Every structure is written in C-alpha cells, then in structure tokens.
Amino acid sequence: MKHLFQLVFIATMLFASCSKQQNETLLVQLSDIKAMGDTLPKVAMQRLDSIKPHFDNESEYMRNKFALLDIRLHDKAYITHTSIKPIKGVCGYFEENGTAAELQEAYYYMGSVYRDLNDYPNAVTYFLKSAEIAESDNYIDSSLWECTYSQLSYLYNQQFNYSSALDAAIKGLDIAEKFNTSNERTYINTSTAYFESGDTTNATTLCNKAINNILGNGISKSNADIVSKAMYHYTITNQYLHAGLCYELLKSLPKNELPRNYIPNVAVYLERFVSADSAAITMSELYETTNSIESKYDAARWLTRYYVAKGEYEKAADYAINFINANEAVIDKRNFEHTTNANNFYRYRRDKEQETAIMENAAQQRFWTLLVASISIILLLVGAVHYYRRKNQLLGIILNMEENIKQAKALISIREKEIEKEESEIEKKEKELATLNATNSKLTNQLEAAENDFRMLVAQNRELTKLTLMNKIAGNAKDIIEKVKKAAKGKYHLNDDEWKELLGAIDKEYPEFTYEVNAKLKKVSEAQMRVCCLWKIGLTGPQIVNLTGYPRQTVWFRIKHFEEAFGKEE
Fold first, then answer.
1. CA proximity to 200, closest of 149, 234, 247
2. Distances (CA, A) of 61 to 98, 99, 464
3. Residue 491 zone, left/alpha/beta (φ > 0; ψ -120 to 50; rest)
4. Is 250 within 8 Å of 262 (Cβ atoms)?
5. pLDDT of residue 472
6. Cα angle vertex 215, ends 230, 565, to 5°?
7. Spatial CA neighbour of 226 closest among 189, 254, 273, 256
8. Of the candidates 117, 109, 119, which has an alpha carbon nearest to the alpha carbon of residue 64?
9. Residue 411 burial (C-beta neighbours within 10 Å; 0-12, 13-18, 19+)
10. What digits encode the pLDDT tens for the residues 450-476?
C-alpha cells in the first residue's frame, strides 16, 4: 500500500510538471505569433489556427490568451469585427484575473470592435480605459498606448471634433517621443490633425520632420504615401519649394511603387504650381486607369470643371455624363456599405440580446399577463367613455375651426403688408449696394495707382543703393570676391556689412547678374540671393554652407534650382 501511494504521488508530480512545461511552451508560441502579427498578420493567423487544437483542453487563462491574440490578429489584418461577444468574454475574464498589461490590451481591442460596429461612444470609452491603465502602470505596452491615442484621434475626426482629435494626436506623439519610437508616420498623422484644425504652422513643422526623416533614410514604397500627403499639405499652404521637393522624391520611384493617393495629390500640385493643363493630363490618366469608383467620380468632376473653364463644352458634357454615372455608382456602393454596417450592427445587437434573454424571459411573461389583463379592463372603460367624449369633441372641433379660419385670414392680411414693406426695403438696399460697388471700384483704381507709384519708388531706391555700394567699392571688386573665396575654405559666416560689400562687388563685376536673377526666378528672398551670388563666383555647395550656415539640403536644392534657371557655371 505504501508503495502504491508513492507511485500515485510521483505520477501526480510528473503530470503537473509536464502540464506546466506545456503551458510555458504554448505561451512562448503565442508570444512568437504575436510578434509576427505586427508585420505579417495573415501568416500569423494561419500559424495560430494550426495550434488551436492544443488549447481545447487548456485552462481558462490559456483559452482567453488565445482568444485575445486571435482578435488582435484580425484587427492587424484589417478584418472588420462583426460581433462584440468574443472580446466581451475575454475582457470580462481579464478584468477579474488579468494583469494590467493584459487588461490594457483587452480594453484596446474592445474599443476596436466597437469602432468596427460604428458604436463610437463605447469605442471611445474603452480606448480611454486602455489609456488610463497605461498612464497609471509602469508595465505597459507603449506601442499599444500610442496606438490608443491614434485611434481616439481617428474617431474624433470622424465625428468632426477636430479639437479633441488634435489633443489625442499630440498625446500619441508625446508618447512616441518619450519612448523614442517616433517616426515619419507619427509626425504626418499629427501634422494632419493640426492641418484639419487650421494650425498650418505646427502642421508644416511636423510635416518637415516627416520629410527630413525620409530624406535621411530614403524614400520607399512603405513611406511614399507620407511624401504624397506632405506634397498635398505643402501645395495647399502654397509652399512651392517644399512641395517641389516631395514631387521630385515621388518621381524617383518606379511607377508600380507610387501610392494610391499620388495621382489626386499630384494633380493638385500641378494645378497650383505648374498649369491646369498638366493637372488635366494627370486627372485624365487617373480616370482611364483607376478601378476605384470614388477616384473616377473625383476625376470626372474635376475634368468637367476644367473643360467648362476652357470653353470646350462637348468634352465637358462627356465628363459630366461620366461624373453622373460614377456618382450613381458611388451612391450604390455607399448603400451597400450601409447595408453591411446595418448587418454588423444587427449581429452585435443579437449577441447582446442573447446574453440577457434568460433573465428577460420570466419578466416578459409576467409583463404580458399583466398587460393583457390591464388592456381588457381599459377597453371596457374606453368603450363606455368614448361615445360621450366623441360627441363633445366634434362640437368643439367645429367651433375651433371657425375661430381658426378668422385668425388665419387676419394673419394673411398682416403678412401681405409685411411682404410689401420687405420688398421696399430690398429695393432700397439694392440701390445702396450699387452705390457702394461704384465707390469700391473707384477706390480699387486709386489703390492700383498707389501700388504702381510704390513699386517705382522701390525700384528707384534699389538703383540708388546699388550705385552707392558700387561707388564705395571703387576698384577693388575682384579683391573682395577673392577675400570671400578664401574665407569659404573654413567655417566663417559673413556679417551684414560684408554681405553688402560682396553684393556691390558682384554688381560691379557682373552688372547684369542681379537683373537676370530677379527676371528668371521671381520673388527672390535675401537668403536665396546670397546663395545665388556665392554660386556665381564659383563656390561649391560645402563652401556656401561654410559662409552662410544654411542646411546642406537647402543649399543643394537652391543650387540645383539656379543651375536649371541659368545653366551650370563653367
């Protein structure tokens, strides 16, 4: 007997040890699949399905870990959630038995499911719960924390709550910078939130950071959509040089690696900075090649306006017909999407009803019993009272109708008088408006004359300044240029007097140069003129950086711009 007990004890210990070892193995596999799912979610889903049978007889904790990872992988693969029931069970379990990190993840995917079911209030609630855990616990997933605020920003944006969307985007950026995980996508998402809120200054700053990251690491298929979005932002805010840089970066990609948002965004760029004709070619290409109904709709609408403006009404009519057809297709597609969403919402409501069906069944039976009895009694009373009340109501209705007719006639008479008075006021305002338009036209002509006088004075002042500088320089223009060339060998920044002296020397040595710069480049800033002058006297890009202190990328871009305008200096 003693030996029998010893054998049972040993067998029990061996079974417990094997079970613990198996749990650890399965948890390692779940961790590996989770890591794979961040980049290859569909492959990870296949691998998770392959080990599903191992969890059928596992503990409740292991089954819930498996279920949570399955929901996560579906979300990573952009597969729309259609039921709240799976995540609700997982969330309930980890609320009772999970760690802070597990509950943070469960709340996050609870919010994701509600988001897919278009239940935005509950989605926001659970994303905020996930963020609250992350903010109060040291052992959290910082990447998930950042994604939480990204999701909140998206949801607020969908509800046109741009202020809250911006606040959430800023918090997400702060988290990324705190954990040193910020990248070009973090910057462009926050830039877009600023852009939607009307803050173009901060939007441009973050947009610049995103582009600088890409310039440092190189443009690729994975970040080309960011460059395209940045090009659109720069174009809308009229930043020609930055938009042009993005345009050049995108042109360097193979055609099959251009992002989906490239053609509509480049059309905006071409229309603003090149020509409407170039934009029309791009929009025509989009219309002919795209399989997207929405893209055909946008292209046909743009081309209709373009050909109407050019007076080519036959082409405009053709695209207008295409626009109408595309519009009908878009409406049909949206109706289909609405039907899908309604079905998803129905399944969500059905799951919710199943959870409470047992509790409600008994209450409903009692309710119907009482309701039938009450209705029977009420019907008897109503039948007795109805005849007498109806008779009195009919008499009252006849009297009220006569009184209402009298009141209506009086109101019509009053309203007719008010209309006559309003028409008189409108005629008076139209005359005043005509007078104001005439005065405005006169003031506009006076303003144009004043602007012409001002431009003439500016030109005269520029010539006098130039002559003064040239007189001061006398005959040592070449010496000044040589002095600057020597200074460029080291890091030496010219002061304002030295810049004026150099500009005067160049005007004397190359009398027509500044006129050519202003004629070919238009609206040349002081910084651009300085780089242009140093380039004219033969300095290289690094030498120009030494004298100006400007960023290397800026100097390179400006030299390229000058060479395109004037040709390379021999």
1. 234
2. 9, 11, 86
3. beta
4. yes
5. 55
6. 80
7. 189
8. 109
9. exposed
10. 666 555 554 444 554 555 555 555 457
Written as six digits, the tokens of 317 are 């009519």
Percentage helix, strand, coil, to 5, in the chain?
Answer: 85, 0, 15
- What's the one-letter identity of residue 339? T
CB neighbours of 176 closer than 8 A, spacing ≥ 6? Answer: 146, 182, 183, 186
Quick one: 220 exposed, middle or buried, by C-beta within 10 A (0-12, 13-18, 19+)? exposed
**Distant-in-sequence contacts of 29-38, Cβ < 8 A, 24+ apart:** 30/65, 30/66, 30/69, 33/69, 33/73, 34/69, 34/72, 37/69, 37/72, 37/73, 37/76, 38/76
Each residue of 154-164: pLDDT tens digit?
898 878 888 99
Report how far residue 144's alpha carbon sits from residue 111's, in angstroms, rounded to the nearest whole number. Answer: 12
Q: What is the Cβ-side half-sphere exposure of residue 262, based on CA atoms within 13 angstroms? A: 22
Q: Under a CB-based contact definition with an 8 Å cutoff, are residues 532 and 524 in contact?
A: yes
Q: How far is 81 from 117, CA to CA, in rounded Å? A: 7
Whose CA is closest to 488, among 532, 547, 530? Answer: 547
Tens of pLDDT along 406-438?
Answer: 888 888 888 888 888 888 888 888 888 888 888
Q: How confident is the model at residue 334 (pLDDT cuts 50, 70, 90)?
A: very low
H or E, element range at 6: helix 2-37
**422-457 burial code (b ≥16 CB/10 A, e <16):** eeeeeeeeeeeeeeeeeeeeeeeeeeeeeeeeeeee
CA distances (Å), origin 480, targets 69, 240, 473, 496, 527: 72, 34, 9, 14, 20
As given in the structure block, the two tokens for residue 271 are: 């229309």
Give the DSSP letter string of 175-236.
Answer: HHHHTT---HHHHHHHHHHHHHHT-HHHHHHHHHHHHHHHHHH---TTTHHHHHHHHHHHHH
Q: Return d(Cα 62, Cα 42) in angstroms, integer.
A: 22
Using H for helix, E for strand and C for coil, what is the string for 133-181? Answer: HHHHCCCCCHHHHHHHHHHHHHHHHHCCCHHHHHHHHHHHHHHHHHCCC
- CA–CA dist 221, 141 (Å, integer): 28
The CA-atom distances, in angstroms, between 68 and each of 30, 48, 338, 420, 559 are 10, 12, 28, 72, 56
* Inter-CA distances, 11 with 15, 122, 283, Å: 6, 50, 76
**Of 342, 339, 345, residue with least CA distance to 84:** 345
Q: Tell me what percent of the residues of the chain surpass a pLDDT of 70.
A: 82
507-533: pLDDT as tens digits: 888 888 888 888 777 778 888 888 888
Helix count and strand count (H, E) for the chain? 22, 0
